[in-house]
Amino acid sequence: DYLGRPVKLGDVENVTFGSVRVGPSYIGASAEDSTTLKADNVIVKVDLIETVFTSKLGLDLTVVGAEGYLAQDPKRGWLNLVLPEREKPEQPNRFEVNVDDVRLRESKLTLVPLPAENSAPEPILLEAVRGSLSTDKVSGAGEDPLLTRFEVTGEPIDGGEITLKGEVIPVEAPAKTNEDLNKADDSSHSDNINSDNKIAFATNLFVQATAAPIADVLDFTLSSIDLATDAVTIESGEVSGLMEMSFAPGEDIDYSGTISAKNADIVADILPLPIENAEGETQFEGNLWTVDRLQADYGAIENVVAAGLIDFDNEYDLRAAKNGIALEAFTN
């Protein structure tokens, strides 16, 4: 009932001192979000001696053979699991129960980024997924929110490796503006306007790619920073690098990174011909991307070299040439 979604736990398969293993289990979607998870088995470990002396029951879960589905939400982003609020019991529980750590092994994960407008979603499939999640209670604004750290590594079906690592940090919620207050319901809810949102959450997310498909990495990254586009299509190629993204309540998304591409085939609306066999590096800080050197074939012209700036807020300043022939000659 606490999860507000269908949950099915498998039969108990093994019991030892301090651990229980159950068989195939399932967590279904809710009315709030489409996140699902099913697993071949779940191992629950507890420290019984510590529980007796502290009255705190910390659970360590190992999920084996899981198949997860996570779709990006337009408002909540990737961390869109919605849990209903728990009512405080009339009588305090004898033991305080918390899930301290969750480990993932031999699993699969489907990520569904938000597509560009009027485009269909393109799922990202990861296999051989392993990872961990841990939570710690922190104090703030009279509440006990959770600080969450996570790391997940998986292998796209077209090769390479992608690691998603980050933390979700409780912060003081921004003060509500008059516009926010006007959007609230009538006086029946007005007493809760300030108390409902004492705590908000900031997220730091790191994306590490190693010889991973460019299409998968860019689809995930660009949708995460609200830059999803159908003006550029990645036909093939691999990418390596590190991207950092920060999401804070009431603030613009902050992101940066360095990536290198190899064997990329690209179709862009602004070019009449595709770019093939592209290879090079780019650095970015916010919406300003610096192309250090990009070498590619354009139509029958081989080894065109490009460098310059791509400013998503303004215009491009990208220069390309082949033996003194400028890019303008190719695109006219």
Describe this structure in words.
- The protein has five helices and 20 strands.
- A hairpin with a 2-residue loop joins strand 2 and strand 3 (about 20).
- The N and C termini lie far apart (about 65 Å).
- It has helices at about 50-55, 180-185, 185-190, 215-225, 325-330; strands spanning about 5-10, 10-15, 20, 25, 35-40, 40-45, 55-65, 65-70, 95-110, 125-135, 145-155, 160-170, 200-215, 230-245, 255-270, 275-285, 290-300, 300-310, 315-320, 325.
- It has a 20-stranded mixed sheet that branches.
| Series of secondary-structure elements, N-terminal to C-terminal | EEEEEEHEEEEEEHHEHEEEEEEEH
Which percent bin holds the helix content?
under 10%
Uncertain segments = 183-195
How much β-strand is present in the residues? Answer: over 45%
Structural Rg: 24 Å
Structural class: mainly beta
Key words describing this protein structure:
single chain; 332 residues; mainly beta
SSE topology sketch:
Blueprint (H helix, E strand, L loop, with lengths): L6 E2 L3 E5 L2 E4 L2 E3 L8 E4 L1 E5 L2 H7 L1 E9 L2 E5 L24 E17 L11 E14 L8 E11 L4 E12 L5 H6 L3 H4 L8 E15 H11 L7 E16 L6 E15 L6 E11 L2 E11 L2 E11 L4 E7 L2 E2 H5 L1
Quick structural summary:
The protein is 10% helix and 54% strand. It is built from 5 helices and 20 strands.
